[in-house]
Structures are given as C-alpha cells and as structure tokens.
Amino acid sequence: MFPSSPDMGGLAKNTSYKVVLPFYIYAALSFLVATFLLFFSSSAFVQNYFHPQTLAITHVMALGWGTMIILGASHQLVPVLIESKLYSNTLAYLSFVLAAIGIPFLVCSFYTFYFGWQAQLGAILINAAVIFYLINIAISMVKSKKENVHAVFVFTATLWLLITTIVGLCLIFNFTHNLLSQDSLAYLPLHAHLGIIGWFLLLVIGVGSRLIPLFLISKYDNKNLLWWIYILINIGLIFFLVNFLYIKIDWLYFLPVVAIFISLLMFGFYCYKAYRDRLRKKVDDQLKISLLSILMMLLPLSSLLIIILLLLFSIDDSSLILTYGFCIFFGWITAIILGMTFKTLPFILWNKTYHSKAGLGKTPNPRELFSNKIFKLMAVIYLAGFILFGSGILLTNQLLLKISALLLFISAILYNGNVFKMALHKPKEV
Q: Which residues cross the membrane (predicted)?
C-alpha cells in the first residue's frame, strides 16, 4: 500500500519490481529503436504496406513496445485484479527472456526480408514466451478462486494473443514451406486484427476499466456494461474470423466493425461516468494522455470503415491502410502507454525503495521520481509528431514525414530519459 498515494491502492503489493522493471526497460528501448527506424525509413510509408521496413517497424511497436510493456505491467496488475499473488516469478522471467531474444530475430528478418531460421526461431521463442505468460496468468486466476470481469478480459486477450502469434508462426514458415493454401500476404489482415482487437483492445478495456476509476478515485462500477462490451468484442472478432476464412463476403465485415464500434461507445460511456463521478477533481497530465487515447480509438476505426468501403468498389488505397496501422501503433497504443507508464511505474519503484521506510521520516512522493516538465514536453512533441506523420502519409509528403519522424524520435528520447531517471533513482535518507 502507499500511504501517500491512496489512489493506487495495492498496485504494487504482490509482484517484485525485479519481475516488472525489465519489461518496462525493454519496451522503452524498443520505442526508441522504432522511432529511430521510422526516421531513417520514413520513405517506406509512401510505398506498399508490405514493405520490409514498414513490417519491421510495425513489429517493433507491436511486440517490443506494446506487448512487452503490457506483459510487464500485467504481472503487477493481475494479482491486484484477482486479489491473489502471481503464481510464479520464474515463469515471468522465462516469458521475458524468451520474448526479449525472439523479437530482435524476428524484426531483423522482416527488415532484411529474409525468412530463414532466424525468423522461425524468433517466432518460436515469442510463442513460447506467450505460452509461459498464459500459464502463469491462468494458474494465478485458478488459485485465487475469485471471478473478476477485468481478469477475464485479460485472460481472454491472452488467448487471442496466443492465436495471433501461432498464426504469425504459420505465416513465417509459409514463406519457405508452403504451409498454407495461399501466400502469407493474403493472411496478413487476419493476423493483424486478431492482435489489434483480440489482444490490445480487449486487454486495454479490461485493465483500463479498472485503472481509470482507480486513478480518478471514482466509485463508479458497472459490471453488466463491461460484460456486454466483452461479449460484443468477442462476437465481432469471431464473426470476422469466420467471414475471413469461410464466407469471404466483403460487406459482411461491416458487422464486426459495428459491434466493435458499439463496444467502444459503451467503454467511452463507462469512462465518462467514472470521470463524472470522480472524487479527485483535478486530473493530472499522465491520465489526460491516457483518456485522450480512448478518443484515439476512433481514428483507426474510422480508417477501417473507409477501407472496407473502398474494397467494395475494388479500390486498394495503400496510404489509407498505412495510416490505419500508424494510428493504431503510434497513436492509440502509444498514447495509452505514455500516460500509464508514469501512473504505474513510479509507484512500483517507490514501493521498492521507500515502502519499508514509510512512517520513519519524510519520503518523496512517487510523482517526484520523474520529471513532470519532461513529461509535458514529451507529450507535446509526441502529439505534434503523430499528427504530422499521419498527415504526411495521406499527403505522401517526404519532408513532412521526415520532420514528424524526428519529433517522434525526440519524444522517445524524452520518454526513455524519464524511465531511466526512475529506474536509476537513488534512495534518499529518511
């Protein structure tokens, strides 16, 4: 518990920071690498969306940035959701090590567009990491013997993640072994949306519906609404899967999109009610960025609706597809992480350093472990870079892409600076 931070409750009471911190560090460095590659490969974003450099950057963002930080944070958050300890720190370490080794192998293979043993090994290691994580979460939930809608979101999202990585593994082997009936490019939309909707969206809503009221100090809770959101997302995803593999009628894709859209409106309503009923009237900058990310969910969804309409008229607009992917990974997911990192990591590291000293003297507030000025500067530069780069893709403007990519790279440097400032924090005498 945090005596000076009642809004965090018991967020860091179970899992050791030694388990969580490596994931955060790896994710921070991945964000830096992704924006570095983006700067030197910005021209790829005015070409085909299957460009090797675009694929490499996408997988750095999806796996190294988004997935790694979610895995790390959830090792801390799931025990809180289920009110029980994480089953195994060893499985958590194994999950980290396997993913940390597998991701570079896979990304380098995409960048060079060579799908030999390196790509296959990378995909196998990533799948093994997800399996260890799933086992850890599943046993933790079973041992807790408490049903919790937020935990069900996380568990189901992890199942979709495993399906996503298995499909990805098949696509990698399909490049050299003709494993599937069509080429790997044909299955790319399936692989992408299983991960985006099944993994990222389902998990973000499951965790966000718990953390946002917590950070706002809001008593609002509506389990029935969350269950309806859960059902709509999964029904939409299953229908998409069936239509993609068996029915194959383009206009039917509107049905899962509508289901996802309704679920997002319901989640937005949930967040609004939590915001309206909050006890803490002043909302800090970190949470504002995370709340903004909820609105950002509508950007890729709007792009997807336009893409489906274009497909019905047999129009393949690569710039719109690239914008869609960019809005997801550099917009929605990144905005969530930028905000939530500085709402969770400071308390985890504060707990490691000062928890045993609380009450013995004056200790710094968790928010003092990072620089709020740097955070604000990072947020402004990031938002400018995001808006300009998205515009650059649509306008196919190379100069605009290069300038905005530089802004995103600078925001990643500032993010890393703040993360390492916290990680290397020296305890003060109390």
A: 21-45, 57-78, 90-113, 119-139, 151-176, 196-218, 225-247, 253-272, 292-315, 321-342, 374-393, 399-420
